[in-house]
Specification:
Elements: H1 2-12, H2 28-48, H3 55-58, H4 62-71, H5 74-77, H6 82-96, E1 106-113, H7 120-127, E2 134-140, H8 167-181, E3 186-193, E4 197-198, H9 202-210, E5 215-218, E6 252-254, H10 255-263, H11 266-274, H12 287-299, E7 304-306, E8 310-311, H13 331-339, E9 342-346, E10 354-358, E11 360-361, E12 364-365, E13 371-372, H14 380-389
Parallel strand pairs: 1-2, 1-3, 5-7, 8-13
Antiparallel strand pairs: 3-6, 4-13, 9-10, 11-12
This protein binds 2-acetamido-2-deoxy-beta-D-glucopyranose (4 copies).
Keywords: Glycoprotein, Glycosyltransferase, Membrane, Transferase, Transmembrane, Transmembrane helix
GO molecular function: glycosyltransferase activity
Organism: Perilla frutescens var. hirtella
Length: about 450
């Protein structure tokens, strides 16, 4: 496509104004007026017509347009390819259509696991009494799990091998979403792993997710080696480096967002081909951390929260987040986690910039987390006990120590060394579900 070439050239070549033929028979002031009007016309055409409609420019002069493309900032002038144009039209249309109204809206819980689900009993307690308001889907990529809870029996979908950091992880997420979308009552979709636990009562989670106006997809710009450093130029022209984003894999999303992921093959293809471990120059990229954050940043940036409602503790500054053992499980820990009301992102470059933002739920500050992960199976009994004891206020739980929150996986552990966790503000612990009504 010509416009694409123009854009590529535009990044390298010197600015150049359109050449205008001299007309010797015109007097000087008229000549200037003509020139100024011509330039203005091109400029107007550039701004009024979206970049994909270059035909409009050709009406005036093909060469003039090309020169102008080189002269104006490249991003403004890059023409969309046919595929991008088609993709954006479809996605815009889906986002603008009114959501399907269901008389029996449900939340779909999507479990991505290699095999067994060690916290099935805990989830069983969580789901109990809420039949008809949720559905469960299990993608077991290695072994077929033996189930302990009736809510999980026969809920496995057809699955395939999942390799850490590879595109097969995103394939599995898409497979789960596709299966859950078949049920029109599913209005919100939650991705969970085998090490995830619920932090709140079902009602709390249901209201938090069902009545939110955004999807909880983690997304931030990390100019460092573990962020944009993973970008490779072969993603051009569809994905530019400036749009490349990072975020933890564990999302919750609205139905419309799940549908646009199903509708997308263009951007997904780019990530499948060019965001994987072991690329040229020893570059590693992990699609599960970049595809969705980048996709939403490009196509619906205001439709996502930019943080994940699944808590994880990076305070140990290792390559993997802290795994909770049985002795770590205390009411205080749970209370600490649930009281956090600000999320934190840290860049992986030398500056190690810390960005703290309040967790806003429909514009109001709320506690950030509904789920938490990296709990070892040995914690089950303690977790079950805390639920049973606190049946009236099911999950009045929280955690502590100086919290270093870092919502994105596989970050450079060193990059967190300069954090000042004391700055993270706490949301007052919930004393009653009635006082935390989200409806
Ligand atoms: C998320 O970040 C984008 C910028 O990337 C911003 O436009 C959007 O408003 C943010 N979402 C919320 C809920 O603040
Ligand atoms: C969500 O609600 C907040 C508060 O009313 C508002 O500022 C924000 O723009 C809304 N976002 C969307 C995507 O509707
Ligand atoms: C909970 O938070 C408090 C205050 O930040 C801290 O002193 C305490 O150690 C934390 N407890 C646990 C178990 O993390
Ligand atoms: C809600 O909180 C207020 C104080 O903020 C308290 O007086 C009231 O008793 C609480 N209600 C319930 C049902 O716990």
């Amino acid at each position: 496509m010509k416009s694409t070439q123009g854009w590529r050239m535009g990044t390298k070549e010197t600015p150049m104004l359109p050449k205008t033929r001299q007309r010797s028979n015109l007097k000087k002031p008229t000549w200037i007026i003509v020139l100024v009007s011509l330039v203005s016309l091109f400029l107007i055409c550039a701004y009024v017509y979206p970049p994909q409609q270059f035909a409009a420019c050709y009406v005036f002069s093909y060469h003039g347009c090309e020169a102008l493309q080189n002269w104006l900032p490249p991003a403004l002038f890059r023409g969309l390819t046919d595929d991008e144009f088609a993709s954006r039209v479809v996605i815009r249309d889906i986002l603008n259509s009114p959501p399907i109204i269901s008389l029996n809206p449900k939340i779909a819980f999507l479990f991505l696991t290699p095999g067994a689900l060690p916290f099935e009993k805990l989830w069983d307690k969580f789901f109990q009494g809420n039949e008809g308001r949720f559905s469960v889907y299990v993608h077991a990529s290695k072994d077929k799990p033996v189930h302990f809870s009736r809510y999980f029996i026969n809920r496995e979908i057809r699955s395939d091998t999942v390799e850490w950091g590879k595109i097969s992880m995103v394939d599995a997420e898409r497979r789960l979403l596709a299966n859950a979308l078949k049920d029109l009552d599913n209005q919100h979709f939650v991705l969970l792993s085998d090490s995830c636990i619920p932090l709140r009562s079902f009602d709390f989670v249901y209201n938090y997710l069902m009545y939110t106006n955004v999807s909880f997809v983690d997304c931030f710009e990390d100019p460092g080696p573990h962020g944009s450093g993973r970008y490779i130029k072969y993603m051009l022209p569809e994905v530019e480096k400036k749009d490349f984003r990072k975020g933890a894999q564990w999302f919750t999303m609205k139905r419309q967002h799940a549908i646009i992921i199903m509708a997308d093959s263009l951007y997904f293809r780019k990530f499948r081909e060019y965001c994987k471990p072991g690329m040229e120059g020893g570059r590693n990229c992990y699609s599960d951390e970049h595809y969705l954050p980048t996709f939403f940043h490009m196509l619906d940036p205001t439709g996502i929260s930019n943080w994940s409602v699944t808590h994880v503790d990076w305070s140990e500054m290792k390559w993997h987040p802290k795994s909770y053992r049985a002795q770590d499980i205390t009411m205080e820990l749970m209370r600490n986690i649930t009281s956090i009301a600000e999320n934190m992102h840290v860049t992986s470059d030398k500056k190690r910039q810390v960005k703290i933002t309040p967790c806003l739920w429909n514009g109001n500050e709320r506690s950030c987390y509904l789920f938490a992960r990296k709990f070892l199976p040995e914690t089950l009994n303690k977790l079950l006990a805390s639920v049973v004891v606190k049946q009236v206020v099911p999950y009045r739980i929280g955690c502590s120590r100086r919290w270093l929150l870092f919502s994105s996986a596989r970050a450079n552990p060193e990059s967190q060394a300069s954090l000042k966790p004391g700055k993270v503000k706490k949301w007052p612990s919930v004393t009653s579900m009635a006082n935390f009504s989200l409806v």
